[in-house]
């Protein structure tokens, strides 16, 4: 199993969620996060004063999926979240050794 963490622009969340559901991925965790990469933030004007916004709002989607769904999930996220502009986000993939469903005690694929 793999854990996929995708950092995307907030307005793309619904589209990505719907696209993942179409390929059979329904369980996910979503968090509102802030950060920056090459964008390095931007300046804004407030009451006539210019100030720097270092951390930009993003959304982090976390999925734990079976190995055979990995490439399709990545393709869906990339195709759906891409705007072609800086700040589209990143995807991180890590191995998951063990999953346990607390309620039933089921493990691994049965727990996902």
UniProtKB/TrEMBL annotation:
<comment type="similarity">
    <text>Belongs to the P(II) protein family.</text>
</comment>
<dbReference type="InterPro" id="IPR002332">
    <property type="entry name" value="N-reg_PII_urydylation_site"/>
</dbReference>
<dbReference type="InterPro" id="IPR011322">
    <property type="entry name" value="N-reg_PII-like_a/b"/>
</dbReference>
<keyword id="KW-0804">Transcription</keyword>
<dbReference type="InterPro" id="IPR015867">
    <property type="entry name" value="N-reg_PII/ATP_PRibTrfase_C"/>
</dbReference>
<dbReference type="InterPro" id="IPR017918">
    <property type="entry name" value="N-reg_PII_CS"/>
</dbReference>
<keyword id="KW-0805">Transcription regulation</keyword>
<keyword id="KW-0547">Nucleotide-binding</keyword>
<comment type="subunit">
    <text>Homotrimer.</text>
</comment>
<protein>
    <submittedName>
        <fullName>Nitrogen regulatory protein P-II</fullName>
    </submittedName>
</protein>
<dbReference type="InterPro" id="IPR002187">
    <property type="entry name" value="N-reg_PII"/>
</dbReference>
<dbReference type="Pfam" id="PF00543">
    <property type="entry name" value="P-II"/>
</dbReference>
<keyword id="KW-0597">Phosphoprotein</keyword>
């Amino acid at each position: 199993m793999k854990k996929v963490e995708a950092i995307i622009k907030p307005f793309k969340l619904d589209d990505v969620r719907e696209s993942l559901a179409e390929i059979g991925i329904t369980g996910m965790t979503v968090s509102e996060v802030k950060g920056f990469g090459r964008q390095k933030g931007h300046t804004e004007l407030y009451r006539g004063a210019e100030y720097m916004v270092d951390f930009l709002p993003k959304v982090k989607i976390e999925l734990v999926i079976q190995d055979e769904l990995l490439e399709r999930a990545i393709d869906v996220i990339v195709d759906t979240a891409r705007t072609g502009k800086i700040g589209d986000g990143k995807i991180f993939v890590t191995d998951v050794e063990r999953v346990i469903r607390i309620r039933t005690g089921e493990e691994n694929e049965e727990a996902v």
